[in-house]
Amino acid sequence: MATPEKTLTITFFVLGLVTQVIQVIFIRELAIVFRGTEMVLAISLFLWLLFVALGSFIGSVWKWHSYHWLALLPLVFMPFSLFSLRSGLFSSFFPGSVFPLSYMIVLATILFAPLCLFAGLFFATGCIITSRITRLYAMESAGFLTGGLLYHFMLNSMRSFPLIVMGGALLASSVFFCFVPENKWWPTIIIVMALWIAFGTNIDKNWRRKQWQKSAPGQKLLEEKFSQYHYLAMLELDGQKNLYIDGHHFVSLYAEDSHWMLQFPHVIMTQHKNPKNILLIGAGLSDFVCQVLKYPIEQFDYCHIDKETINMIQRYLPKADQKVLKDSRLHIHNIDGRHFLNRTDTKYDIIIHLLPDPTTGPINRYYTLEFFRMVEKKLSNDGIFVLTLSNAPLPEGDLLKRNALIFKTLAAVFTQVKATPGSLSFLIAGKKKSSLNLNASHCEQNFLERKIKIDKQFRPELFHLLLESNAIKQLEKRLLIEAGFRTPAIAADELEIPAELLGEENSKVSRHFFDKPVQGHLNKDSQPRAILQSLNAMDSTHAIQYKVLLTSLEKHSPYLWPLLLPIFSIMTLAGYWRSSRKIAYQTTLWTAIAVAGFFGISTEIILMWNFLQLHGFLYSIIGIFTAVFMMGIITGTITEKPAKQKKLSLASVIAFMALYLFYLPSMLIKGEMAHLLILNFIAGWIVGFMFALAISLYRKIAPKSKGAVLYGADIIGAATGALVVGIFALPFWGVGDFSQGLAWIAVASLLAFSGNCFWQKKNTNCS
Amino acid sequence: MDNHDQNIETRRDFIRTITRYGMATVSLPMALQALGFISNETYGAIATPKEVKFYRKLDNKRIQCLVCPLDCILNDGETCFCRTRNNRDGVLYSFAYNNPCILKLDPIEKMPLHHYLPGERTLSIATGGCNLRCLYCQNWQQSQVKPEKLKTFRLDADKAKKITITKKLKVISYTYTEPVVFSEYITNIASHTRPGIRNIAATALYINPTPLKDLCRHIDAFSITLKGFSDKFYRNVCGQPLKPILKAIELVKKQNVWFELVNLVVPTYNDSDREIKNMCRWIKRNLGKDVPVHYSRFVPQYRLNNLPRTPLRTLERARDIVLAEGIRYVYISNVAPHNGNNTYCASCKKLIIERLGFKVLHNRVRNGKCPDCRHKIPGIWDGNP
C-alpha cells in the first residue's frame, strides 16, 4: 500500500479533530438522556477508549488491505446511533424515569463503536505503513487540540446531527484521499454530505421532538436550545410550564399554584428576627423569590450561572410574577454562586441554595465543608444558612446516609442544625446558638407580627402542616443517629414515651443533640463522599445494580491501594515467568505505557476537578484542558528525539512522574487556571515523552512489530483511569490519597522496568 | 525464532495477559464476597417469625401462599414476591410480624380518610415489603425492602396497646407500606385492641377474597388506593393487574366496612378525561355515589422522579368531571390551601368541614348530619366504640 506519509499525517490530524468534536457531541447527547453525572462521563470515556484500544489490537493482528472502505462505517452508522439514542429505539422505558446503567452501556456502545473501532484500526494501519509512529501520535494529538478549540469557540451551540455528518464526511473524504488519491470517490461523498448538512438542522429538530415525545409524552415542546452551559427545554402540560435542564426536570411554572416552593420561604424567613440581606443560589427565581420579596428586606441577591436559563424562565413566568421580578431590591447575578460568595463583601442575614442533590461534581461543591466555612464567614452574627436535599417521609438507607453526611458536615461548621420533614428536606443551620426554632406556633406568631399580606397561596395556619413537630423530631433523630451523634433509637424513643412502659431492652438513649463530637468522614471538596452516597441512593431508585460493588469498595477502601499495588507489580513482573527475555522486557514496556495512560487521564481529571471546585463550571472549558494536555503530548513526542540514553530517559521520566504525583496535592492549593494548565501541560508532556521513548525501545527489540500494541496499552490504561477516577477514586480517597497511591504505582512500574533492564544486561554480559 | 514470529507470540501473549488480569479484576468482587468482605447486611433485631394463616402445603416441602392473587409457589428457603413471607422447611413464616419499621403519630386525614372520625390522631404502623411495584412509590425505602434489612422496632400487640393508652389515641392505622403483606400482624394487634381502639388500613387491596374477608373482620375502615383505571397502567406502572383489585373493592363494599377511594394522578400516565370518567362510572355503578373519592397530587418520587408535579388544572379538571358524573364527595389532596380539601354538603352545598391539607380547621358536622339542611353525611363521625 503505497501511501505518501504526508497525506497520512494529514489524515491523522483530521482523525484527531473529528473524533474530539464527535466525542464531546456524543457525551453531550448521552448526558441529556442519562442526566449527566460524573458516572456518565466516566463510563463514556471508558467505553470510548476501550473501543479505540480494541480497534488498535484488531488492526495489529488482523491483516486488512482495504481499510479505506471502513471509513464509511462511522459516516453511515453515527446518524443511526444518534437516532436510536434520541428515539429510544432499543428501549422500553417509562417517561420520567432514568435508564438503567446497563442500557446506558448498550447505547454508548452503539454510539461509540463505529468511530472508535475505526480510529483504532486506522492507527494500526498507520503503524504498518510508516515507521514514524510518534509523528502519527503527535498529529492525532494536534487534531484533538484543534477539535477541542474549535468546539469551544465555534461549534458548541450548533446542532448535533449536522455536526456528526460533517465530521463523518470529512473523515471519510480524508481517508479516501489518502488511500486512493487517483479515485474520485471523495468529491461524491462531499456533495452527498453537503446535501445532508443542508437538511440536517431540520432533521435534528425533528429527532429532538421525537426524543421529547418519547421521554415526556403528552407534554408540548415550546422551546429548546443549547446555552453555554446547558441544554434547555421548556415543555407545557395542562397550562403548567416545565423547564428541563440537560434532560432533568428543573422547575415548573404555574399561576396561583400552592406547593412547598411557595410555602417554605416563609418558614425560612421566620427563622431570623429581622432579615435584611438575602442571597439565593440556584433555582427559585419564579416562586421562591416572589414570596421572599413580600418581606421588608433591603437587598436580595440571586445567583445563577446561566443567563439563558434565567431568560427562559422569565419568558414563561406567569404575568404577576414577572412584575414582582422588576422589584429594585432584587439583583440577578449571572455568575457561579460560590465564586460570587467568595468575591462579595456583603454580610448576609440569610443564605439559601436551592440546588439538585449532590450527584455531580459541580453541584457537590455547594455541600462541602469548605463551602460551608465560606458561607459562615459571609453571614451576619445571627445569620442562617439553608440548603435542600431530597428526602422521604421517613428516610432510610442510602438517602438517610447521604443526608446525615451533609447534616454532619454542617454541624462541623455551625452551632445549630435543624431539618424539616417531607419529600424535600430543608437543612437550616444557625451561626448563633439556639437561634433556630421550628415550632409551628412560633413561626406563625413571627409571621403575623411582620404583617405580611396573606393570599391564596399561603396562610399562617400552613406552618402547622409544614412543621409537624412529631415528624421533625423523628427526622432529626434519624439524622443524628445515622451521623453518629446519638445511640440507636428504640420504639419508646421514636414515640417519645418512657422506655420502661414498653419494657425496652435498651433504654439508655441520649436526649441531647450533638452528644458526641463530629467525627468520621465529612463531605469535602477534595473528597466528595456525598456523590458516592447520592449515586448509591440513585441506584436504589433505579435498580442500576452497581451499589453492591460501590458499598463494598467504600467499606474496604483503606485496603484497596495495598491490593492494587501487588496487582500492578504482578503485571509488570509477569514477563519474568516467561521463557523469553524479550517478552519480559516488552511486558514492562507495555505496563509502563499503561501506567502512563492511567496517569495521564487521572491527572487531567484531578486538575479539571480542582478547577471546577473553584470556578463552578467545566464543560465549556473542557476543550481548553484537553487542548493543553494534547499540546503537552506533542511536545513530549518532539523532545524525545534528542534523548540518546533511551532506557535511562524512560526510567527518569517514570521517576519524574512519581515525584509529580507525590507533590500534586500541594501544587493544587492555588488552583488558578494558568497554574492548572501548566500542570496539565506537564502531565501531557510526561505521557507523550514516555510513549515516544517506549516506541523507540520497542522498535529496537521488535523492528517489525506494530506500535499499535503500545498504543492499545496506553489507551487501556487511560480507559481504566477514566473509570476508576470518574466513579470512585475521588470520593473514596480524595485528591491527596489518590495521588499518593498513584505515585506508588509509578514507583512499582519504575522498579519493574529498571529491574528488568538490569537483569537483561546482566544476562547479556554472562552470555 | 524470527522477529515476525516473535511479534505474533508477543501479541497473543499480551492479549492473553490482558484477558487473564481482566478476568481477575472482574472476579475480584466475587472473591471479596466469598472471603466475607461483602455481606448482605442485616439490621435490627428481628422478632421470631410467625406462621402465616393462608397457605397450603404442596409436595417436597413446597408451599403455596394464598394471601394475594400472586399465589406464590415457594420451594424450601424461598421468599414471596412481597418479600415478607418465607418458606422454612415447608412452613410459611411472616418476617414482618412484630417488626414494624415505622411508628408514627399522624392525623387520620393523612390516610386519607375524610369521613371517618375527622381530626383524630392515629398510631401509624408499617413494616417492610409490598406486593406491588409502583414506580412512583413514596415510601419505597420501606416498601421495596425486606423487613429484616430495615432498622425495625420490636413491637407486639401488647406494646401497641400500651402506646395508644399512653398517647390517648383512639385509632391505630396500618399505612405507609402495604398492610396486606403484614395482615397476620394486623389481625393480632386488632384482636388485642378492639373494640376500644379502631383499626384502619390504607391499602392497594391486591388480596385474595378469603384473607380479605378475614381482614374485614378486624378492620374498621379502609382507605383504598385505586391507582388508575386501565389494566395497562396497573401492569406497567404498578406491576399487577387491575381486575383482582376491583373485585376486592366490591367485596369490601359487601362486607359493610367503611372505605374511601384515593387516586394519585400521575401526569401523562393516568390523567386522561376518558380514564377518569370510566373510573367514576364504575364507582357509581358498583359502589354508589356516596363513596368519597380523593384525587391526590403526584410529586416526583422513586423511579418516576423526572416527571413534573401534577398540574393544578389537571386535578381540578378531574374533580369537576367526577362531580359532574354524580359522585357527591370529591377531594383534592396534597395541595393546600385549596377548596378541594374541604367537605361540602351534597344537598345544600354549604361548607361543613374546613381543612387545610390534613388539618381540620372547622368541623360543623353534628350527629353525622349537615347543620344547615340536616342532610345525612355518609361516614363514621362518632368516636365511641
Biggest chain pair contact, residues each?
A: A-B, 86 and 75 residues
Task: Walk across the major sheet of chain B and give the strand order.
Answer: 7-8-9-10-11-12-13-14
- Give the quaternary arrangement of the chains: heterodimer
Unreliable residue stretches of chain B: 1-9, 36-45
The side-by-side strand order for the widest beta sheet of chain A comes to 7-6-5-8-9-11-10
Radius of gyration of chain A: 29 Å
Percent in strands of chain B:
15-25%
The biggest beta sheet of chain A reads:
7 strands, mixed
Tell me the structural class of chain B. alpha/beta
Element order, helices and strands of chain B? HEEEEEEEEHHEHEHEHHEHEHEEEE
Residue fraction in strands of chain A: 5-15%
Task: Count every beta strand of chain B, where a strand is a DSSP E run of 2 or more residues.
Answer: 17
* Helix segment tally of chain B: 9
Mean pLDDT of chain A: 80
Average pLDDT level of chain B? 87
What's a quick, concise take on this entry?
The complex is a heterodimer of chains A (767) and B (385). By secondary structure, chain A is of the alpha/beta class. In chain A, 63% of the residues lie in helices and 9% in strands.
Overview of this protein structure:
The complex is a heterodimer of chains A (767) and B (385). Chain A is an alpha/beta fold. Chain A has helices spanning 5-34, 38-61, 72-87, 101-129, 133-155, 160-179, 185-215, 260-269, 287-292, 307-316, 319-324, 337-343, 361-364, 369-378, 397-411, 440-449, 462-466, 469-482, 491-494, 499-502, 529-542, 547-555, 557-573, 581-615, 622-640, 646-667, 673-701, 708-766; strands at 220-226, 231-237, 240-245, 248-253, 277-282, 299-303, 330-333, 348-354, 379-390, 416-419, 424-430. In chain A, the strands form two sheets. Chain A has a seven-stranded mixed β-sheet. A four-stranded antiparallel β-sheet of chain A has the order 1-2-3-4, sandwiched between helices. In chain A, β5, α9 (287-292) and β6 form a beta-alpha-beta unit. The radius of gyration of chain A is 29 Å and the shape is globular. Residues 506-516 of chain A have low confidence and may be disordered. By secondary structure, chain B is an alpha/beta fold. In chain B, 29% of the residues lie in helices and 19% in strands. Chain B is built from nine helices and 17 strands. An eight-stranded mixed β-sheet of chain B has the order 7-8-9-10-11-12-13-14. In chain B, strands 1-6-5 form a three-stranded antiparallel β-sheet, with no helix packed on it. In chain B, strands 2-3-4 form a three-stranded antiparallel β-sheet, with no helix packed on it. The relative contact order of chain B is 0.10. The model of chain B is unreliable at 1-9 and 36-45 (pLDDT under 50). Chains A and B meet through α2, β4, α15, α17 and α18 of A and α1, β7, α2, α3 and α9 of B.
